[in-house]
Design a protein that fits this description.
This protein has six helices and no strands. 65% of the residues lie in helices and 0% in strands.
């Protein structure tokens, strides 16, 4: 007999509580020093990768010089979504040149993702391409609003 939805929810609640307890027990432990760019290459959905991607996104969006804009990205950087989300989050702060650069980068992300071969799953490539199209469109709109040629 299949479990009832109430017992399924209770089991999920217990699993979540156990996970929270395990994570909080580790919270005080010494964490290894992780590169602020580690999340660019982390494409799986493990808690470790999610944490690295969040930290990398924060590092990129907190960089007042936005040096990351001119860095050459890898296909994994697009698959992780970090660079594209950084453009999305910072579009109002980007210069007109940075908006153009970001749009060109987003437009080329699909080819870069496709070139990764077996390094990325078809689903990772598809998600990266969809995000790139969305970011390209948003950057174009922002550029059109602020960077009119006069």
């Amino acid at each position: 007999m299949p479990p009832s939805s109430a017992s399924t929810r209770a089991g999920a609640g217990l699993a979540l509580a156990a996970l929270c307890a395990a994570l909080s027990a580790c919270a005080g432990a010494e964490q290894p020093d992780v590169s602020p760019r580690a999340g660019l290459a982390c494409v799986n959905d493990s808690l470790d990768c999610i944490g690295k991607r969040k930290a990398t996104l924060k590092a990129l969006t907190d960089d007042p010089q936005r040096a990351w804009v001119k860095e050459t990205p890898t296909p994994e950087a697009y698959a992780s979504g970090v660079r594209l989300f950084a453009y999305k989050n910072k579009k109002k702060d980007l210069s007109c040149d940075e908006l153009l650069y970001g749009r060109k980068e987003a437009d080329g992300a699909g080819a870069s993702l496709k070139s990764a071969g077996t390094l990325l799953t078809p689903a990772q490539v598809a998600r990266g391409r969809m995000l790139a199209v969305e970011v390209s469109r948003e950057l174009a709109v922002e550029h059109a609003k602020r960077c009119r040629k006069g």
